[in-house]
Amino acid sequence: MARLAAFDMDGTLLMPNHLLGEETISTLSRLRERDITLAFATGRHVLEMRHILGAVSLEAFLITGNGTRIHSLEGEVLHRQDLDPAVAQIVLQQKWDTRASMHVFNDNGWFTGEDIPAILQAHVYSGFRYQIVDIKRLPADQVTKVCFCGDHDDLSRLKTQLHETLGPRAHLCFSAVDCLEVLPVNCNKGSALTVLSQHLGLTMAECMAFGDAMNDREMLGSVGHGLIMGNAMPQLIAELPHLPVIGHCRNQAVSHFLTHWLDNPHLPYSPE
Prior knowledge:
The chain contains 8 helices and 13 strands. It has helices spanning about 20-35, 45-55, 85-95, 150-165, 190-200, 215-220, 235-240, 255-265; strands at about 5, 35-40, 60-65, 70, 75-80, 100-105, 110, 130, 145-150, 170-175, 180-185, 205-210, 225-230. The longest helix is centred in the middle third of the chain and has 15 residues, at about 150-165.
């Protein structure tokens, strides 16, 4: 029996309308009743996640910013990691050959250089939004991560540019088909979950995790029981072919799987 369950949010726990379904909330509460620790591992900001948790009255550890921050149940910072200021300076100041928009995150919030109302759709229920600033003026020593949003093919070309420029000084990953992130070296959800499990006196073998994108790869591959969403990025399924694939987030597949796991742990599972 797993002692900790870690969940990605977008494309995993959240439905396509960016809400937690009632079945999902009920199932997560059942996990807590079984003394299974919850951890939400997401690219979203801790300020937004606190609002979401408060709205559904769930207690959970928070791994936010794709592993750049870990917060306790009480809101205490257990772990933090920022981009190397020299790397952040390059990313913010260099002119990249891309049509993608740039988004910068630190403990104070989300910053971008232009108004993009459509991108706020994913945050409509939390009310979390960007602040429009001159990105080149942001302090390079206060950058947690940088996210580029746009067309996937364009972002793939940008990833090549970033890799050629930054080399091993940053971790690049797709947190969604249309989101490319520049993260600190060795910073990902898997490394953050390792830190959290050690803090709790657990092993990664005692953890289970759910995810759908390439930023979930390290986490899913390092836990005792990793599960991939049916709506996952094909690259993720290809890189972790040994892991089971469950149903689609629109059908609250995490709840469907966990209900079976709690009630019929010895029977085979069939996706909904």
